[in-house]
Amino acid sequence: MKRKKFMLLANGKPPQKKIINFLQQEGYSALVCADGGANKAKQLNLIPDFIIGDLDSIDNQTLKFYQDKSKIIKLLRQNDTDVEKCLKEMINRSYGEAVLLGVTGDRLDHTFCNLGIVIKFFHRIKLKIIAENSLLIPYAGNVELHTIPGEIISLYGFDTKTRINSQGLFYSLKNISLPFGKKESTSNIAESNKVTLKIAGGIIFVIRDLNLLMKNNLL
Fold first, then answer.
1. All domains of the chain, ordered by start, with CATH?
2. Would you say 32 and 5 are in contact if contact means Cβ atoms under 8 Å apart?
3. What residues pair up with 74 in beta bridges, in sequence order?
4. What is the radius of gyration, based on Cα positions, of the chain?
């Protein structure tokens, strides 16, 4: 059974419209705005399916504009962020995959929080982040990546318990950990059309070139 997929647009730096169009073609049919993300949707001439949050960041004009165009869900609880509110609501609606957009920008604390959300929700929904020209995907277990020879791939871990083995990377990883602030594998290089990773004991982030993946239909 295919996962139901959606785009989640937050109130950070918005993506280019071509990225939205590409994701729609890839089956991310629903657009969900986290509160002030609706302001960015309006700038891009998009009509969200849902606007979810405590609605303290959405402009009044934007709220009025979407009043009869989108389903607006106001949730006042303060024990989760608007992005988390969106994810919980869409999980309850049987969605199983999302691309997070506009989750980075001027607020470094918001960026860190949203990176943490990807880990927090790892076992509940499949998530990716698109920011500028980067695609971030969290992984655990055995992974096979379809790659382009010479493609730059960066890998980041979080603790010493998570061990990584790789095949197909120029800088091979052999039962290595990549604890944050101590060691990383930035700007590694794919040597062929396939990179395999064996990740034990935790989650890692893999960051790749978005435009390259879109061009080669590898998203």
1. 4-132 (3.40.50.10240), 137-215 (2.60.120.320)
2. no
3. 53
4. 18
- Token pair of 132 as six digits: 């500028």
User: pLDDT tens track of the chain, all 219 residues?
Assistant: 678 999 999 999 999 999 999 999 999 999 999 999 999 999 999 999 999 999 999 999 999 999 999 999 999 877 899 999 999 999 999 999 999 999 998 889 999 999 999 999 999 999 999 999 999 999 999 999 999 999 999 999 999 999 999 999 999 999 999 999 999 999 999 999 999 999 999 999 999 999 999 999 888
Distance CA 148, CA 189 (A): 9
Nearest Cα to Cα of residue 122 among 141, 101, 108: 141
Residue given tokens 């647009």 in the structure block: 9
Backbone torsions φ then ψ of 42, nearest 5 degrees: -65, -40
Residue type, 15: P
Alpha carbons 146 and 31: distance in angstroms, whole number = 27
Residue 30: its H or E element? strand 28-34
Neighbours of 180 (CB within 10 A): 11
Strand pairing of 4-9 and 28-34? parallel
Distance CA 111, CA 38 (A): 18
Alpha-carbon distance of 171 to 99, in angstroms, equals: 29
Q: What span, in angstroms and rounded, lies between the C-alpha atoms of 79 and 63?
A: 23
Tokens of 173: 């990883």
